[in-house]
């Protein structure tokens, strides 16, 4: 009996089938006892080997099938979790946006109903009383030209004063040494500000109404003598509405330090808590909060509503013309 015959006997006899007993018939008629015994040992050994191999194969097959099922379940679970996460995330984001919008609307509603009882009103100059956009643009162009730089667009020209008053770097806007540019820019601005500025719409009528309700003072960050500011106001017939003027030269620390506000309040002879500062810049609101005054931000300058809202003023209005209706 050769090897191929043994395999055939094992296969067809059911050696690899658990439900059929192993049946092997040996032809011993022509073989001796030793050969028959040897063949029996070989058959038994191969039978055990194949049965073990089959069992191992079956176990591997079942294990593989179980692993595949688990992977499938994990994928489904992962998809479910991801779907839940993304859905919940979108819902939370939507809810957060809705709540934020509702809060903003609620705050805006409260602002629109706000009434400020004050005895002193401290007003910023540039962007609040006077429109200085043209002066900012012209000053930037003059400074760039004087330093041999390409002329900036209006967006860059209006970004520069925002950076300067907040003491933020502006090296990404200019290609020269910052102090050198600053000197050229401020020189250009102060030279042309008197001829390039103009009162914002309806400012005169608003100041007329406000001066009948409280004492008014100007607080500006310009590094010029107060006489220069008064002269500029005189050409627009606005000087008579103000009791006092404070410039950056009158303080050691300009806005957002409260020093200028405190000086103005003392000059007006009122309590700091009875005053409100009105300005177009975030530093106006910051200075007011530091001093302990009420704060009103106007949108007539260089800052957006979002930028001003971050400082949390008591009131945000479009311009000074709207202010009298909120002052008692």
Annotation keywords:
328 residues; alpha/beta; Rossmann fold; 2 domains; six-stranded parallel sheet; two-stranded antiparallel sheet; 9% strand; extended
Secondary structure: elements and pairs:
Blueprint (H helix, E strand, L loop, with lengths): L2 H11 L19 H80 L7 E5 L5 E2 L1 H14 L7 H12 L12 H19 L1 E2 L3 H9 L3 E5 L6 H9 L9 E3 L12 H10 L6 E5 L2 H10 L2 E5 L6 H5 L5 E3 L11
Parallel strand pairs: 1-4, 1-6, 4-5, 6-7, 7-8
Antiparallel strand pairs: 2-3
Give a written overview of the molecule.
It is a single chain. The protein is of the alpha/beta class. The protein folds into two domains: 1-113; 116-326, Rossmann fold, CATH 3.40.50.1000. Helix content is 55%, strand content 9%. It is built from ten helices and eight strands. The protein has helices spanning 3-13, 33-112, 133-146, 154-165, 178-196, 203-211, 226-234, 259-268, 282-291, 305-309, and strands at 120-124, 130-131, 198-199, 215-219, 244-246, 275-279, 294-298, 315-317. The strands form two sheets. It has a six-stranded parallel β-sheet, sandwiched between helices. Strands 2-3 form a two-stranded antiparallel sheet. Helix 3 (133-146) packs across helix 4 and helix 3 packs across helix 5. It is extended. The termini are far apart. Residues 6-31 have low confidence and may be disordered.
